Amino acid sequence: MLKLDYNYMMSDFIGGHGIAIADFNNLKSKFESAHKAMEDKRKAGKMDFRELPYNQDAVVGDILDYAAAMRDSVDAFVVLGIGGSALGPMAVHQAVNNPYYNELPRDKRGGNPKFYVADNVDPERLTYLFQAVDPAKCLFNVVSKSGSTSETMSQFMYIKELLEKTIGKEESRRRIVCTTDRHSGNLIKIAKDEGYKTYYIPSGVGGRFSQLTPVGLLPAAFCGIDISALLEGAADMDKACLNPCVRENPGYMYAALHYILMEKGKNMSVMMPYADSLKYMSDWYAQLWAESLGKRFDNNGREVFAGQTPVKALGVTDQHSQVQLYAEGPFDKITVFLGVDEYRETLLVPKTYQDISSLGFLGGVTHNQLIQVERMATEYALLRAGRPSMTITLPKVTEHTVGQLLYLFEVATAFAGELMDINAFDQPGVEEGKNATYAYFGRPGYEEKKKEMDAKPEKNNDYII
Ligand code: PA5
Predict the structure, then answer these.
(1) Are the beta carbons of 81 and 143 closer than 8 angstroms?
(2) Model confidence pLDDT, tens digit, residues 43-82
(3) Mean pLDDT of 122-149
(4) 74 by DSSP, 3-state: which?
(5) What is the pLDDT of residue 433?
(6) What is the rounded end-to-end Cα distance, in angstroms, of the chain?
(7) Is the Cβ–Cβ distance between 407 and 284 less than 8 Å?
(8) Rounded to 5 degrees, what are φ and ψ at 128?
(9) CA-based torsion, 142, 147, 148, 149: positive or negative
(10) What is the CA radius of gyration of the chain?
(11) CA count, 13 A, side-chain hemisphere, 2
(12) C-alpha–C-alpha distance, residues 333 and 17, integer Å
């Protein structure tokens, strides 16, 4: 099980910028109401992500059968999706699989296809992808809950035409699999009309909470990841997160520690994994934390401009980049280290240069020790500087512990939303940008938005060339 060590969040260790026991005691009734709201929402079916560890036996079976049937006939599995439809699949793949997965010969990938995620619509990206892989030998997974996101749907339209021109309509059908809402949106209509294989995102699960639905499970299964173990890990964490006592519930505690310090002006949440395998976990977390908690209005319609800015860092790399700022810059950050007890490999530094004392000490040390010591050293530097930090330690990076980690952050985000009295499950700021794009291109139904945009003031000549 993961360990959450929050000692250095506490004022006993870091002084004035930390949390006192009294801070917890003062929030007792807030914690109780937030827990009650979580329970009530769960019972009312408004927190469907919490059912995912338990209610997907049939879909897991279907995914495994489909992956087994298709795997050998494709060179690459390509996700077309963005935001919540892309970051989770990338994070889990990076965590569990070899970092050079795509460069390995197929037998060293367990016979599995290569894996790509085409999230951005930078025209160079997709063009160059097809210089690396033959589109006719790919399986494209179009992932969109709404079925209307411009980035994903434009990629789908491009690829559909490309495939139909090269391998014909009939074979193209086998090369496209959709993941979308069962009832609403364009993608489900298209999938039905075209006869594409389709998986469903439960309607009560939003994009950034959907990694443990077919959004994440299908790509993971194609990459040889044990999806049942992912869900079992999530189920373990769910049980730990049922505890009504905040100080015994890892999800609640993570949220409470952040909430208390957010109220004291710590408006940045740095995530710093000390493992390359967890690097993209910070990207996934950044979306979850930012999009869920960054809200203009609270649940009573009051303007609150709530939220905490997530910052992505990587240990040890960013010790040589950002840590100077964390230790001596503004007192506005909480740093969350992700540590690993047992790395999957061991690398020993040979005992060369024993005659040079300033290098000889490294001889006989493993990189495993070095990375652990450097994490502790950074934690110590922040402690000395009176900066709050906590460490979540994974015994080892496996499907099981990754499932625990994903689920921990999801519960923490939902509980933080309750403490902040905001809706953690909507994203009106994102919708505004999506709608402006639709209006710009003249999508029917967006005429008013277009007029509103056309009426915006012209830019001045405030530029330099
Ligand atoms: O969390 C969210 O809801 C968003 O980030 C969406 O996942 C993202 O905008 C993509 O939306 P969709 O899945 O509808 O294409």
Answers:
(1) yes
(2) 988 899 999 999 999 999 999 999 999 999 999 999 999 9
(3) 94
(4) coil
(5) 85
(6) 56
(7) no
(8) -70, -30
(9) negative
(10) 24
(11) 35
(12) 10
Residue whose CA is closest, atom 9 of ligand 1? 83
Binned at pLDDT 50, 70 and 90, residue 460 comes out as: confident
CA nearest ligand 1 atom 3, residue: 207
CB 408 within 8 A of CB 393: no
State residue 26's pLDDT score.
96
Tokens read off for 32: 């109780």
Q: What is the mean pLDDT of the chain?
A: 96
Rounded to 10°, the helix 399-420/250-263 angle is 40
pLDDT score at 256: 98
From atom 2 of ligand 1, which residue's Cα is the shortest distance away?
Answer: 207
The size of the chain, in residues, is 465
User: What's at 67, amino acid-wise?
Assistant: A
C-beta of 187 in contact with ligand 1 (< 6 A): no
CA 255 from centre of chain = 17
Alpha carbon of 101 to those of 79, 136, 137, 223, 422: distances in Å?
16, 21, 18, 9, 40
Burial of 177 (0-12, 13-18, 19+ CB in 10 A): buried
- The pLDDT-based confidence of 240 (bands split at 50, 70, 90) is very high
Q: Cα dist. 14→4, 193, 265, 331, 380 in Å? A: 17, 61, 16, 12, 11
Q: Which residues are catalytic?
A: 291, 320, 434
pTM of the shown model: 0.95
Give me the pLDDT at residue 403, please.
Answer: 98
Residue 457 DSSP class:
P
Interval between CA 285 and ligand 1 midpoint (Å): 14
Token output for 413: 């985000």
Q: In whole angstroms, what is the distance from residue 198 CA to residue 215 CA? A: 11
Ligand 1, residue 83: give the atom nearest the CA. Answer: 5
207 close to ligand 1 (CB < 6 Angstrom): yes
Q: What is the distance in A from the centroid of ligand 1 to the CA of 82?
A: 7
User: Per-residue pLDDT tens for 413-435?
Assistant: 999 999 999 999 999 988 888 88
Amino acid at 142: V
Task: Tell me the C-alpha distance between 4 and 337, whole Å.
Answer: 10
Contact between 278 and 314 under an 8 Å Cβ cutoff? The reply is no
Contacts of 174 (CB under 8 A, 6+ apart): 70
